[in-house]
TrEMBL record:
Keywords: Iron, Metal-binding
Gene3D superfamilies for the chain: q2cbj1_9rhob like domain
UniProt keyword Metal-binding, yes or no: yes
Transmembrane segments: none
Cited Pfam families: PhyH
Metal-binding recorded as keyword: yes
Any GO MF annotation of the entry: metal ion binding
Protein name: Phytanoyl-CoA dioxygenase
Cofactor(s) needed by this chain: Fe cation
Amino acid sequence: MPPAGSLTAEQLSFFDANGYLVLEPFSSEEDVRALRERMAELVAGIGGSNSTGSCEHHRMEMDDFYFKSGENISFFYEDKAFGDDGCLKQPKELSIRLVGHALHEHDPVFKKFSSSENISSIFSSLEYKRPVIIQSRYIFKQPGIGAEAIPHQDNTYLHTEPPSCIGLWLALEDATVSNGCLWAIPRSHKNGLKTQMIKDESGTYFDRTVPSYNQKEFVPLEVKSGGLVIIHGDLVHKSFENLSPTSRHAYVLHVVETKGCEWSKGNWLQRKIAPEALYVS
């Protein structure tokens, strides 16, 4: 049996036409459980066994802590998890927003999954020659407070010339309309990149006005636990705030081509070593 990421001609045609592809199922229950249990261990190790009330948690902000997270495993918290005193209102495991951005490099469980044949076969199917995982994220989408992800294109933030970013979004719990599944505008990748975020000596900014989108054009991408969504770097996608009592865990990889593509010097994520040096055959 071929790896789960070996795409058929029909699947490749759908992805080319629509800018996304849902592979369901993709990962086994064992793989999903291993990733979730390992993340629970990582979260349990933050600041002792129970850090409710601690005021030393990092919010999701584009600052120096965030910019340095590209080469380590860093923890970010939901803004709504904090009280007026600046401290967490509930246990850390119900307050954390995401963990990033180098789980695939520094944690053995996440590295094993990220470098698996199931993952690498996707990029063989897409005819990438030297793909590199440039970023990994574990997203919690906490019940009741999980923040929205505004409409965006991944190439805006992880840019190569020419653009080559592909997102892999693995559901670690059922992702539904009620708990904040992905939404996308089919075929929007055909319209190209609308804006690029630049980080330089003057700060962080967008090179063009961030566009607005017709909300009626978005369609939900509901997926069962273990399913994978492949996302073209120019596809416009988003997720709503999670107001439900159910979390929506996901593991996300962003991959770029390094053969014939140059990593943009204005990207927020700048590695101490060149991206192409991270390639693993």
